[in-house]
TrEMBL record:
<dbReference type="InterPro" id="IPR017853">
    <property type="entry name" value="GH"/>
</dbReference>
<keyword id="KW-0378">Hydrolase</keyword>
<dbReference type="InterPro" id="IPR029018">
    <property type="entry name" value="Hex-like_dom2"/>
</dbReference>
<feature type="domain" description="Beta-hexosaminidase bacterial type N-terminal">
    <location>
        <begin position="9"/>
        <end position="138"/>
    </location>
</feature>
<dbReference type="Pfam" id="PF02838">
    <property type="entry name" value="Glyco_hydro_20b"/>
</dbReference>
<dbReference type="InterPro" id="IPR025705">
    <property type="entry name" value="Beta_hexosaminidase_sua/sub"/>
</dbReference>
<keyword id="KW-0326">Glycosidase</keyword>
<comment type="similarity">
    <text>Belongs to the glycosyl hydrolase 20 family.</text>
</comment>
<protein>
    <recommendedName>
        <fullName>beta-N-acetylhexosaminidase</fullName>
        <ecNumber>3.2.1.52</ecNumber>
    </recommendedName>
</protein>
<dbReference type="InterPro" id="IPR015882">
    <property type="entry name" value="HEX_bac_N"/>
</dbReference>
<feature type="domain" description="Glycoside hydrolase family 20 catalytic">
    <location>
        <begin position="142"/>
        <end position="492"/>
    </location>
</feature>
<dbReference type="InterPro" id="IPR015883">
    <property type="entry name" value="Glyco_hydro_20_cat"/>
</dbReference>
<dbReference type="Pfam" id="PF00728">
    <property type="entry name" value="Glyco_hydro_20"/>
</dbReference>
Length: 532
């Protein structure tokens, strides 16, 4: 597609091959007579189409195989996430390599229907919907196309999480990295350790205003997901063929847990009984004590996590490992004795000891460990995969050593970072990363050997919520940049300098209309701010 294709819908992310019908080719007309023909295995996607397109159009899309119809079928000859879509005057035929591929095809069909197909209720009952004749053949570049959502710095209610899963699916993203504990809050109910949420989910102060000049307000803040909430989120993601990566961050980012269970901390150097949930940003110095009891405690946590996040949809479990200040371990006679007893060289190796323990523990239970690139320090656990966030270097080193890698360098794809350098930018955090910068992000760094490049599973955009107090602020930071990110992760784009940003930007005109219909408070090029 080029920027000249103004007469046809701008598809995002761009499919691999699109052939629009000849001028004058008959469009497909969706109306009250249109039926859904779902082959075996396609029932779930049929249900989602009724829930989205059915709701937006007000059309019944009843089961049927004759006349005006949308056919959904599977073709195992296609790659699992690949799909084909053929629209002509008679029918819409969507074929997926698996139900996941079929759903991607259904999302493309939704985009072809026009922006109003993204509404929740019909605004013009009785209207008809014309879909241009087209043939699409499509499949993703990467198998890991993700977004991390930090629900710790600010809690987001369950419905907001479900809505984000819908937004990921609409952008053909397939991994949801669920950051569940941090210094500022513990967000998942753990039955055997109830104080993690009774105490650890609440802090005394809430907001950091969205401008640099704003300060904390003194409203208490908190919240957590019950185990039933988690089950609902996991099921909702599975229906949308989104894998969930639960993250339990150790041994740093642990102050909320220590506030709940003071014995988890370095009690010989800190009065951990006096600690409360961290109510500032930055990284707390209060980290886990390297004891056997700490390991047992977190094994208990992870046992419940594994039960809630089944292996089929959560093959990876994230164990954090980032930004663990080592000062307390340096000062603590108990930690030093532990280093000696375990025959370790230093505190880096002590951090590694934690990670290696859980690598073995998770592997024995059929899961794979993934951690932030700090887990390279002190030696990488055998089967570990790495989220490369401090630039590309950690990911390159891990991939060259034969470890799987998810590329998420902060300079490129941290969506908490500001979108513009102007004085009016409401959340002036980090580097300036414009829509175009994200569009020119390349997950596979040049110069990697072919073998190492094969270890780049894919990429994810990370949304840390220190300055995002609610869904609206999250939307503002995430969109429209997530659309550019989705195209990077899905489409086989040329090298960054050769990417057609103007063409992408032209297609974004249609995409903004979709985001409007979806009620996303995205950053509008040229303003105004969505909440003004
Ligand atoms: C670094 S990414 C962090 C987060 C912060 C983020 C802010 C990572 C593993 N750690 O704890 O929220 O920077 O951009």
């Amino acid at each position: 597609m080029t920027s000249d294709d103004t007469a046809v819908p701008g598809l995002i992310p761009a499919p691999r091959e699109v052939t629009w019908g000849a001028p004058g080719a008959e469009p497909f007309r969706l109306d009250a007579a249109t039926v859904l023909a779902a082959a075996p295995g396609a029932e779930g996607v049929a249900r989602l189409l009724r829930a989205t397109v059915g709701a937006a159009t007000g059309l019944p899309l009843a089961d049927g195989t004759e006349g005006s119809r949308v056919e959904l079928s599977l073709d195992p000859a296609l790659a699992p996430e690949a799909y084909g879509l053929v629209v002509d005057g008679d029918a819409v035929r969507i074929t997926g390599g698996s139900a996941a591929g079929l759903l991607h095809g259904a999302q493309t069909f939704r985009q072809l229907l026009g922006p109003d197909a993204f509404r929740r209720a019909p605004i013009a009952p009785g209207r008809t919907w014309d879909v241009p004749a087209v043939v699409v053949e499509d499949e993703p570049r990467f198998g890991w196309r993700g977004m991390l959502l930090d629900v710790c710095r600010h809690f987001l209610p369950k419905d907001d999480v479900l809505r984000y899963l819908d937004l990921l699916s609409a952008h053909k993203l397939n991994v949801f990295h669920f950051h569940l504990n941090d210094d500022q809050g513990w967000r998942i109910e753990i039955k055997r350790h109830p104080r993690l949420t009774e105490t650890g989910a609440w802090r005394s102060r809430s907001k950091y205003g969205h401008r640099a000049s704003d300060l904390w307000d003194e409203t208490p803040h908190g919240g957590y997901y019950t185990q039933d909430d988690i089950r609902e989120i996991v099921a909702y993601a599975a229906e949308r063929h989104i894998r969930v990566v639960p993250e339990i961050d150790i041994p740093g980012h642990a102050q909320a847990a220590i506030a709940a269970y003071p014995e988890l901390g370095n009690t010989d150097v800190v009065d951990t009984a006096a600690l409360t949930v961290w109510d500032s940003w930055g990284v707390s110095p209060n980290v886990l004590a390297p004891t056997e009891d700490t390991l047992r405690f977190y094994e208990g946590v992870l046992e419940e996590v594994l039960e809630l996040f089944p292996a089929e949809t959560s093959p990876f479990v994230h164990i954090g490992g980032d930004e663990c200040p080592k000062d307390q371990w340096k000062e603590s006679p108990l930690a030093q004795a532990r280093i000696a007893e375990l025959g370790l060289k230093d505190e880096d190796e002590l951090q590694s000891w934690f990670i290696r323990h859980f690598d073995g523990w998770l592997t024995a239970r059929g899961r794979r460990l993934i951690g932030w690139d700090e887990i390279l320090e002190g030696g990488l656990a055998e089967g570990a995969a790495v989220s490369s966030w401090r630039g590309y270097a950690g990911g390159i080193a891990a991939a060259e050593a034969g470890h799987d890698v998810v590329m998420c360098p902060e300079q490129q794809v941290y969506l908490d970072h500001r979108q513009d350098g102007g004085p009016d930018e409401p959340m002036p955090i980090g580097y300036v990363r414009t829509l175009e910068d994200v569009y020119r992000f390349e997950p596979v760094p040049p110069g990697l050997s072919e073998e190492a490049a094969g270890h780049i599973l894919g990429t994810q955009a990370n949304v840390w919520t220190e300055v995002m107090q609610n869904r609206s602020r999250v939307d503002y930071q995430v969109f429209p940049r997530l659309a550019a990110f989705a195209e990077v992760a899905w489409s086989s784009l040329p090298a960054p300098a050769d990417r057609d940003f103007a063409g992408f930007d032209a297609r974004m005109t249609d995409h903004y209309a979709r985001l409007d219909a979806l009620g996303v408070d995205y950053r509008r090029p040229g303003g105004p701010l969505p909440w003004q």
